[in-house]
Write a structure and sequence with these properties.
Structural class: alpha/beta
Order of helices and strands: EHHEHEHEHEEHH
CATH architecture: 3-Layer(aba) Sandwich
Number of domains: 1
Largest sheet: 6 strands, mixed
Strand order of the largest sheet: 2-1-3-6-5-4
Shape: globular
Helix content: 40-55%
Distance between the termini: 30 Å
Strand content: 15-25%
Number of helices: 7
CATH class: Alpha Beta
CATH topology: Molybdenum Cofactor Biosythetic Enzyme, Chain A
Number of strands: 6
Radius of gyration: 15 Å
């Protein structure tokens, strides 16, 4: 089984500006530890699309993580730019993961289907957009928990092939 090492990226203007405490990363980190997965880094950025993209590219190129979890910016707000920034950096989409997250989330909250989260692969790393609310982020992770080890085992195979444009 592939070792799971996750970088966590919190995306929130209010948390970045110190107007609100980061409640998501401690909960996500605790959940990952319960799964016996490790956290390589925790970063916080504002909702600016360029800032999100730049930080994702930095994590892809220099963080040892094979999994990058973003939290926040997946709603309908004008500053909710996480899916668009993620799409700028991924090479392959993995639509089944957010579909499963929305499906299982809708069992608890019918509004879960409104999430615009995307998932994809970039340079052998899996990027998953999670909601910014701590409880919803954990529900989404729980929905795909059993699938992630297999997905991450496949990444070195994908990364070994030349990039196709």
């Amino acid at each position: 089984m592939a070792k799971i090492l996750a970088a966590v990226l919190i995306i929130s203007d209010r948390v970045f500006n110190g107007e609100m405490q980061d409640l998501s990363s401690p909960v996500i980190q605790e959940y990952l530890h319960e799964c016996e997965w490790e956290v390589s880094s925790i970063n916080i950025v504002n909702d600016d699309i360029e800032q999100i993209e730049s930080t994702l590219r930095k994590l892809i190129s220099s963080d040892p993580a094979n999994l990058i979890l973003t939290a926040g910016g997946t709603g309908f707000g004008l500053r909710d730019n996480t899916p668009e920034a993620t799409e700028r950096v991924i090479e392959k989409k993995v639509p089944g993961l957010p579909e499963l997250m929305r499906l299982k989330g809708s069992l608890h909250n019918p509004n879960a289907v409104l999430s615009r989260a995307v998932c994809g692969i970039s340079d052998g790393k899996l990027i998953i957009n999670l909601p910014g609310k701590p409880g919803a982020a954990i529900e989404n992770l729980e929905a795909i928990r059993e699938t992630l080890p297999h997905a991450l085992e496949m990444l070195p195979i994908i990364a070994g092939h030349p990039k196709r444009k």
